[in-house]
Amino acid sequence: MVGGRYKLLSAAGSGGMGIVFKAEDAKLRRTVALKFLPAGISVDPHAKMRFLREAQAAAALDHPNICPVYEVDEAGGEMFLTMAFIEGKSLKERIEEGPLPLIEVQSIASQVAEGLKAAHDKGVIHRDVKPANIMLSREGQVRVTDFGLASVEGGIDLTRPQMVLGTPAYMSPEQARGAKTDGRTDIWSFGCILFEMATGRRPFIGDHGQTVANEILNDAPPAPSSLRADIPTGLSEIIIRCLRKAPDERYQDFESVLSKLQGDAARTKADAVPRPSPGAVPSVAVLPFADMSSAKDQEYFGEGLAEELIHALARIQGLRVVARTSAFALKGMKLDVREIGRALGVGAILEGSIRKAGSRLRVTAQLIDAGTGMHIWSERFDREERDIFDIQDEISAAIVANLKVALLGGEKAAMSRRSTTDPEAYNLYLKGLYFTARPNAESMQKALDFFGSAVDRDPDFALAYTGIARAYLTMGTANLAPQAEIYPKAKAALEKALVLDPDLAEAHGIVAYLEFWFEWNWEAAMKSFGRVLALNPGDANVRGNYAWVLSVTGRFEESLVEIKRALASDPLMPLLYAYSIGLHWIAGRNDEALADFARVQQIEPNFGLAHFQAGSAYLRKGLIDKAIETLQKSRQLFAPPGWAESGLVICYLRKDDRKTAEKILAEMLEDRKRLPVSAAALAASFAALGDLTTAFEWLEKAVRERDTLAIVLPSYASDLVPELARDPRFAVYVDRLGLRR
Where is 24: in which H helix or E strand? Predict the structure, then answer.
């Protein structure tokens, strides 16, 4: 206990101006952060005075983008601040995860600028703005912290003459010289952060502090667009101007910075998702409902409620509903609804919140015009948890009524179909959905456990059996378990679901996946995909897989139409863009494939499967060096084992570098001892190197293992692996698959 009031729970971080602990405030029963002076400087009166100034500076600031300071106190001879504890991560940690999507860069940058503008308006200059001093909550709220070096207008300047304060990589030139600073020094540091978020590296990267300081004083940073091609011109210009050496040449205040950040020139181009035109089909995006419960333990419920509304509304022919992936991709970014509307290409946004206390629920919902930001409809529901189904029905009906959508026969009943009437079973099902959306081995097992508990409670819960099948299918397609072992389990769960509900669209979608990717029954898969899309025309993932059936069976132009329709429903889903890149290059549309690659890099620059498909497009286009670069990046980011490597074998052979090609093949064979390296990829690699006998042995294994690449290989073999395609045995192989030659 500290000061008889705060119970220390765990260390939360440390830095030059303090050590931070997560603590419990026993008096007010809330979690807080306590920041103590490091022991080494706690006896320094000057440091103590600066520490007190941090409390005074931050306590004077009341803004949602600044971490609130509650009080300053002393216990056992140590001073400490009591601050809000932010569940989340620092911007430094977020940047270390890899380059940020540009829409996230703009959201974070705008919130940081808003916070610093509020501080400057109060006469407080931060002077140590850096990623480690910016916290991102789980809900996406940005908080600027650590005003330990702040200067306060009208206050006593505690820094000594020529004293250099700050963090070297983010210091302004005037800070590095020990000169007098003003608000424009924060603008410089902000420019450093913006550069790092957008490019993944700092603008000045010397080996030690003095080298960095010399670069800051004498060198120009590289152009951001030279490090990332998709940075909008306006955003690049903002960064460059913030990093002008002379303060007079920078923006003079954060109001000017915000004006530029919010201008069209700084924003990403949503080429794939134009704003709906007047008279277009009504369209809506349902965002995850925010968790307003005091324990913050209802995130799964908010996501599940939104997902169930999406499923209900997607059954309506006269309404375009953005799919879950795209609607949830913007979660926590604190974007204006008009910006969300532009990003998703919709006319309306549904957002809301939930608060749960015991068995009581408070659900709020607002339908907002995405063009004007004005409310179309809003409602608050104070009900028992068992009434959640009625709440969903009322929200769905309100959306349909207010968007003036005419319901066809049977659609009203379809919207309110229930697979269970047991609120607890439904609650367990929502938890399963939450973990299914986070595909890794641990999450998939949790999902299976929750779905299993749901069917234990309600053995007639068809959707829960479908959840089990979906979890198994995800484990198979993500190489989390052997496909031949996992797919039969998915099929068994599906059979139970369809006995209970023969018209369940979600179940038929998984049936179609299994018929296509595992059973290779093209005719049955076509029928199943068609049935799902008739039941739920807005299911973008089903439509994307349907596009692959069309491509594999030689109907390339139809496949491109379907993938475009899928992206219209789910315009921010990286997987669909990866599909589109692959479908286009297989159809010989390499330039269109690479245009989609540029678009997905604005959304998720680190999606390995998209890099694999783009590398293949570069290869087919004859741009070998670019293909090698992109395929290597795919290997780093993750693509199914062997896929990128087989492309690299072909690339190096086209560069007459057989030695490197053979080395890559040897690595694939070694990796095969511990990873599910694609047998079809090995077959293509052996064929490219001229060993056709071994190539066909691997093709036999690919058939036995139900290798995904095995059914796609016939579509491009004649162009990329002509040695294989010319062999008479390949025609026999294609016939066995039941595909066109």
Answer: strand 18-25
Cβ neighbours of residue 262 under 8 Å, at least 6 residues apart? 110
Which one, of 176, 162, 62, lies nearest residue 127 by Cα? Answer: 176
CB 102, CB 343: distance < 8 Å: no
3-state secondary structure of 10: strand
Entry pTM: 0.66
Q: Which fold has domain 283-417?
A: Rossmann fold (3.40.50)
Indicate the DSSP class of residue 691: -
| CA atoms within a 13 Å half-sphere pointing along the CA-CB vector of 81 | 31
What's the CATH code, domain 88-266? 1.10.510.10
Is 683 exposed, middle or buried, given 0-12, 13-18 or 19+ CB atoms closer than 10 A? buried
Contacts of 717 (CB under 8 A, 6+ apart): 684, 724, 725, 730
Domains 6-84 and 283-417 share a fold: no
Beta strand segments in 205-344, E: 283-286, 290-291, 320-321
* Contact criterion met (CB below 8 Å) for 343 and 106: no
CATH code of 6-84, in short, is 3.30.200.20
How many CB atoms are closer than 10 A to CB 280?
12
Q: Are strands 348-357 and 375-384 parallel, antiparallel or unpaired?
A: unpaired
Half-sphere exposure of 308 (CA within 13 A, CB side): 30
CB 436 within 8 A of CB 490: no
pLDDT, averaged in runs of 10, over the chain (741 residues): 87 70 86 77 70 71 84 79 84 83 85 92 88 83 75 43 60 88 93 93 78 86 86 90 95 92 64 49 87 79 85 80 79 75 86 85 89 86 83 84 70 65 89 78 88 95 93 75 80 93 85 89 92 81 92 94 89 89 96 92 84 96 96 85 94 97 96 90 97 97 89 93 95 90 51
| Region label for 178, one of left (φ > 0), alpha (ψ between -120 and 50) or beta (otherwise) | left
Contact yes or no for 470/436 (Cβ under 8 A): yes
Domain map (residue ranges) of the chain: 6-84, 88-266, 283-417, 640-741
Q: Which of 706, 342, 252 is nearest to 519 (CA)?
A: 706
Q: Please report which residue ranges of 373-482 form alpha helices under DSSP H.
A: 388-402, 411-415, 423-436, 441-457, 462-477
- Secondary structure class of 177 (helix, strand, coil): coil
Residue type, 366: Q
